[in-house]
Amino acid sequence: MISLSAFADDAVLKLTQDDNQWTQARKDYSNTGYSKLSQINKGNVRNVKLAWSFATGVNRGHEGAPLVIGDTMYIHTAFPNNVYALDLNENQKIKWSYFPKQDPSVQALLCCDNVNRGLGYGDGKIFLQQNDGTLVALNAETGEKMWDVKVVDTKQGASTTNAPHVFKDKVVTGCAGGEFGVRCYISAYNIKDGSLAWRAYSSGPDSEVLIGANFNKENPHYSALSVYEDVNGGNTEGGSFKALPKDKLKFPESDLGVKTWLKPQAIKNGWEHGGGGTWGWYSYDPKLNLMYYGTGNPGTWNPDVRPGDNKWSMTIFARDLDTGMARWGYQMTPHDEWDYDGMNEIILWDAKGKNLATHFDRNGFAYTFDRTNGTLLVAEKMNKFANWATSVDLKSGVPNKDPKYSTHQDYNAKGICPSALGVKDEQPAAYSPKTGLFYVPLNHVCMTYEPVESKYIAGQPWVGSTLTMFAGPEGVMGGFMAWDALKGKSVWYNKEKFSAWGGVLVTSSDLVFYGTLDRWFKALDAQTGKELWKFQVGSGVVGNAMTYTHKGKQYVGVLSGIGGWAGVAMNLGLQNETDGLGAAGGYKELTKWNAAPGGGTMNVFSL
Fold first, then answer.
1. Is 341 noted as a catalytic residue in this protein?
2. What ranges make up the beta strands (E) of 32-82?
3. Is the confidence at residue 238, as pLDDT, over 70?
4. Of 410, 408, 407, 390, the residue nearest 399 (C-alpha)
5. Which terminus of the chain has a lower count of CB atoms within 10 Å, N or C?
6. Which of 28, 113, 339, 341 is catalytic?
7. What is the pLDDT of residue 215?
């Protein structure tokens, strides 16, 4: 545990240590999703009942989790991103509500449903990142707007779906829009007045990516001009790639975010529309003063338009919270050919005297790093069905791609695993310091993928690919596992009929809670994976489980309301196999369990 005495001025950190409350998107700075509460345990969880519920009135995907500060629960919704403050002392009476006035047309920019991943809290303020790019600070007691600031330009196709994260005196927020050719960034605002503290782009010159002389000091090979060569003898423009040995890597002096976008065919400077969305979950180590996050896919899904490694998309960054300067950065999927967004959560933990960070990526590999310097310690497949790469070389950090599953314009590549959804998408895993294991919700989906010609037009979709999805080799579309991040292997694994799209909660009583697309909210034994309890809610779950106490009683809650990429096609009534970026065909059987769009509901359970 972090010693509070060294950080006496960090009021937000102190709140995260109080298990009676839920004051961060993933409970704490480290993104663990872990609570020491144990009133509900393996011996009595079978007696858990629905205590109360709250309907949001919004019929789209409800991702993320509410916050509980003191005796108030703060609930967010999908677009139009309404916020409700509920008084837990008065039968969840609405203390105040906030209804943003957003242009409805912004919904067209949200590629994968009208989701919002939650709220932030600090300095007596509730922070809402609206889908239209406006970051709002609300008085936590009254709901009065204290300040707001525009984070992205929707005219360029950018939007915002992430939860704002409060670390110390900063509010950190992101950017979405890789499918519109947006050049994304991450931004830190001063909590008092909303003034911009710093902004770091995901592509472009070092001065704008905030890369300095000490970047990747311990691992300079992460900063190579190219980590692949074309086996056909070309210069990585098409063809099949193989990893370069370390003695052949080239190290330019600067600006890899420009120089690794080679010979763009569709536009003059590919990096200027380089994607690299930052709409996931962020973590922070106050001792190192480093914050961690991942960047998403490079602009356009057609890889032939953007030859080269396309840095710094698909990258895990560690940045100084005060300045934004990058301490280290590791690109997981150089020259992404499959839309394997790298923005999933980074979970911070300690073991064997080391400060570690673990990340479960869409590309199917689970990574463990020394978080002080980025040294890669473990990189193993979460499930053997992932086939786009055979392995990751630990010395170079480079994935060994299988050329059979490479993608190129006007070629329909078949049998690629995982699909663009990844082996795990945005649904966050959890870590228990008691068991030393991670608990991971999984997708088990493969795809066909055909890049096509697509011209860039500002503010218009720039996907450049069509795809279809289907169940993986085991015949199911999801799973749930416990993972040993030092050994790089699963300890137990359960199949799920559909993707497990709900974020995970684990408690000190060795209970694991998560929700499923077919409307179940479940509790498992953290040591064995045995199902101990389940309850069927009104709609599929894409929200994150959470827990708190009120008047000495423990409650467990989750937002239901199907949506996200997996549910967007059903919400919109899309039926063609390729609709919803392939989700319509892949998840068509979901209509048997969710016949109507997902109505948002907060479900709260207790003994």
1. no
2. 34-35, 49-55, 67-69, 72-76
3. no
4. 390
5. N
6. 339
7. 97
